[in-house]
Amino acid sequence: MSAARLPPPRAPDLAALIRAESARLAAACTACGACVGACPMVPTLPAVAAAAPETVAAGMRAVLRGEAQAAPAGSVAWIGACTRSGLCTAACPERLDAAYMMRLAGMRLRGALGAGEEGGPPRLPAREDPGWSARVKAFARLTLTEEEQARWL
Amino acid sequence: MAVTPPPPADPAPERVVFWFGCNIARHGEIVRLATRMLEAVGIEPAPAGGPSYCCGSPKEANARIAGGMARRTMEAFNAMGRDTVVTWCPSCHMNMDDFMAPATEAAFATAHISEVLHARRDRLAPLLRHRVAARRALPHLHHGFNGRVPVNALVPDLLRLIPGLEVPDHPCRAPGHMCSALAGVPGALAAAQRALLAAAEETGADALVTIFHSCHRETVSLERGRPGLRVVNWIHLLAESMGLAYRDDYKAWRNAPDPREAVGPDRLAAAGETAFERLVEPELRRPPPV
Ligand code: SF4
Q: What range(s) does the Cysteine-rich domain occupy (chain B) (predicted)?
C-alpha cells in the first residue's frame, strides 16, 4: 500500500507545537507577499485586495511572532477568510508551507494559546459549532444501523 | 526438468483502520460502500469515526482541548494495532500530518483512500463491470488538499475505469480544500457552484461527481430544477459499476419538498424528535446556495 510513515513527534503537546512552528516559520518568512498575491480569497475581501500584499503578509508574520494585537485588520480578515486552497504554499519563494502558517495564525487569532499569551482577547471568532457532536450523532442514527454505530463510532 | 513454481498464494489481507471522520455521518452509505470497496481489493478495514475519533479541529480555538482530543484519537489508533490508517476526510488527513502526529507518537502510517484504491486499481478494474446511469461525469475539484494527495488526478483516473463513462478534463477548481471551507465566506460557495455548473455545461456533463462528503452535502441541491443533471459521489459511481446497491438518502431528504416526510417516522424516531428538529431539519431545509 502507498502509505506514508509519519515522522516522530517534535513537540510534547499541541500548544508547544503551535508555539515552536509559529516561531520557526515566522523567522523564515520575508513578508514578500507572494502568498497574498496567489490567494483566491483576496478578491472577496475588497480591503485586503486594496492593501499592499507585503503589509498583509507582514501582519500574518506578526501573528506568528506572538504579536497578534499589532497585526493590521486587513491581515486578520485575510487569515479569517482562509479556505485552505494551498495556492499560497505553491507561490512561496522561500518554499515555506504558507497554508500551514495561515492555519497556525488562524488558530492563534481565535485564541488557541489563550488571551494571556496573545496579549489580548481573540481577534477572530471561534468557528465552533456548539451542536457539532450531537448533530453528527443524530445523522449517524439516521444513516447507520445500530450495529454499525456500535462498532464504528 | 524445469519445475514450475506454484503460483504465489494470495497475500493475507492488509489490516487497516478506515478513519472516515465525523461529518460523513450524513452519508452512512458512503462509509459502508467504501468499506466494501476496500475489502474487494484485498484490505481488511476496521471503520472508525465520529466524535470519539476526533482530530481536534472542531475545538481549534483552544489548544489544550483540541490537543487532548487529538491525543485520545492517536492513542486509540495505536491501540488498534494496525499498520495503516486509511483516511477519507481531507481535513482529518491534514490534521494528522500537521498537528496530531507532530505531538503524539504514531505507530502507523497513513494513506488517503483514493491512493489506496488507485494503487490497487488492477484489482478494482475487473470488478467494475456495470455501466452507470451517467454518460459524461465531471469531477468537482478543489485547489486544496491536492498538494498533499493528488486527488484531482487519482479520482478521475479511477472513474475512467468504469465502462462506457467519459470523464472530461476541465480547469474548473473551487477554492479551499472542500466546500465546507467556503460556506463561511459570504458568496464563496455560490460562486463556486456557478462555476461548476458552467463547467458542466461546457463539457456536456450529465453528472457532477463530488469527491468529499462536505462537497456532496453542499452540491446535491444542484439537482433541483435540472432534470438532466445528476450529483453523485465518486464512491457512489464506483459502487454502481460494481453492482453494489445503495440509496443516497441525504440527497433525497435535502431535495424533498418536505424533508421530515421524506425521512419518515421510523428513522425520525431513531434520530430522536428533538435532535431531528434542532440539529437536522434546519440543515435539510436551508435554501440552496444557487
Ligand atoms: S510567500 Fe512565503 S516568504 Fe513570502 S510572505 Fe508568504 S509565507 Fe512569507
A: 16-97
